[in-house]
Amino acid sequence: MSGYLASAGGMKHDETLWPLYARIYRDSQEAIMITDCHARIIQVNPSFSRITGYDESEVVGLTPSLLKSDCQSPDFYARMWAAIHLDGKWKGEIWNRRKNGEVYPQWLSISAVKDEAGQLQNYMAMFLDLTEYKSAASKLRLHAQVFSHASEGIMITDTKLQILSVNQAFTVVTGYTEEEACGHTPALLRSGRHGRDFYDRMWENLRATGRWQGEIWNRRKSGELYPEFLTITTLRDEQGEVANYIGMFKDITERKQSEDRLKYLAHYDMLTGLPNRTLLQDMLQDVMEGCRRKGERLGVLFIDLDRFKSVNDSLGHDAGDKVLRQMGERLKRAVRAEDVVSRLGGDEFIVVLRSLKSADEALETAHRVTELMSRPFDGADNEIYMNASIGISMYPDHGKDLESLMQHADLAMYEAKSQGTGPQLFNAGIGGAFSRKLRLERELRFAAERGELQLVYQPQVGVESGRLEGLESLLRWRHPELGAIPPSEFIPIAEETGLIREIGRWVLGEACKQLGAWSRRSRTVPAIAVNLSGRQFMAPDLAETVRGIVRDAGCDPRQIVLEITESFGIVDMESVIGVLRELKAMGFRVAIDDFGKGYSALGYLKQLPIDILKIDKSFLSELTSDPKSDALTRAIIQMAQGMELRVIAEGVEKQTQMARLRELGCDIAQGYYIDPPMPADELEACYLAQARGAGRLQADIVRESAAAVAETQL
Known about the structure:
Blueprint: H1 2-9, H2 18-27, E1 31-36, E2 41-44, H3 46-52, H4 56-59, H5 74-87, E3 89-97, E4 103-114, E5 120-129, H6 131-134, E6 153-157, E7 163-166, H7 168-174, H8 178-181, H9 196-209, E8 211-219, E9 225-236, E10 242-251, H10 253-267, H11 277-294, E11 297-306, H12 308-315, H13 317-334, E12 340-345, E13 348-356, H14 359-373, E14 377-378, E15 383-384, E16 387-395, H15 402-419, E17 424-425, H16 428-444, E18 453-462, E19 468-479, E20 483-485, H17 487-497, H18 499-520, E21 528-531, H19 542-552, E22 560-565, H20 573-586, E23 589-595, H21 602-605, E24 612-615, H22 617-620, H23 627-642, E25 646-650, H24 655-664, E26 668-670, H25 680-688, H26 698-713
Parallel strand pairs: 16-17, 19-21, 21-22, 22-23, 23-24, 24-25, 25-26
Antiparallel strand pairs: 1-2, 1-5, 3-4, 4-5, 6-7, 6-10, 8-9, 9-10, 11-13, 11-16, 12-13, 14-15, 18-19, 18-26, 19-20
């Protein structure tokens, strides 16, 4: 048997090693089958019997065909034997059959064994049962367990630790051939990274248990250090005396690199290389403890880039990423080396300022960041100008843990963003505003079912005729304890929390119910405008939902105008256009609200299936006092007329504004000069109960507008 192994493995013909080879042969987890030159089985090892179910006595003298599963075609075996005859070996995956009839996969290696004259003597087959490994697809981890074919490096030493033999994998990993390694001790590979204590513990464990395994750094022949997972096993002779040591190892460089990469990903932001939230929290535990002992303060700056989303949307994510990387570099320049700059994600950054004596120092740093932000960012083909909103919290004044400090700095940042007055230090007033916001968010969820929400309607009248041309439904919330909550306060909360979708459905349903009630009383009602939020367009079934609500209420879609704001859908305008076309095909009319307030995407305007364009009230407030506002209003009206769109001017509050709109050819006006939003019964009494469309102010509006025009001509 030892002779077969020595020939098959290509090892030195040192008879003193044969007992070791025999033990490897016997203890191998890989099945070994040796045949004569006619492929008749001569010998198998215990793993063969364990895997196939056949005892050695049952297979000796037979051919390996008793294991055939019929899963491979005759061509498969023809190619296999052709390779063996040509190259002297074959390896691959094959399906065979156990004694009990079960078909199983195995990784098989067949080698032709020749004598010194080159004459074929034997065939040696080695295989592993792949059943357990199939589900994990770990073929790459499978390796032969027999010495000469193992994928792990194997080194055999004597009791004095002199290397007696190594396999090919040893050479591949270390760079040392068998001739170069034999006669030396494993100290040949020592890296110098482990102290004496490490090796003392290793050998103490090895003497106590006969086995040691763990990670170790070694040195290749080239001098390169590398990590390996090493298992050392003590081999004893029949008298129980130590005879040899076997070291089996695997180069784990790639695994270590993957682990290091995962650690990096877990603690650093990939785009900027800055610490992420996880690492920031770990770092701050010691920092805050140090501040506590020394009686020092710590400042947390929460920084949010203003209008960053528009940069991504208009210039692309590459430009946005470039801005974020530059932002990280600028923040590092604005602080000291001992301070920490971190990116939370998106356009949000955290700066932690150590060892402060007062909040003024944190404010100074914040103003330094603001100054750096005033310089343009390089966006490849564009210079990009950005602003940042900065909120500040202090340890221990505003919190004694990272979450509290970040939360309060976040609130201060939102205050800074809304006020536009520069960096904002957290204070009790901001905390109160946050508490109110939380309460409104909580109670807004139940406002509709508690009957606290109400629709009011603002009339829209013809500029020339003064007749009622339309109505806009507007949402109001009257809280039983807090009183009237302004839409400017609760609508952003609804948008932020996603409640706007449910509220939007309620508003449309209520408007349709009111249309039905007026219709049953034979009132002639113009179209009612209902606002749609950008959040509602995120729902894939918006068009069907709107149609279903209107259909269930028994209303005609032509009685509904759906209003969208000018810039709400620019993030994904293509999908918005598709939904609007669906709604138009159903009979709804579409209006763009607040036109001119944002950054108009005129390229999309011609694609939008709209019927009405509403001029933002900011133009109306200076219409008669600012020539530029007058010119822009005139241009918008002319553009809309050229596109065959009706124009509504909202926010009309003065007679002179109404007169000027009449001169400019505006179609419809809406505002407090005509009437404020009013409950349904009041609007019905003032407008719908009279002759068709005649409002209470019709004569006054026409008369006063004419007088204003005449006055301007004098």
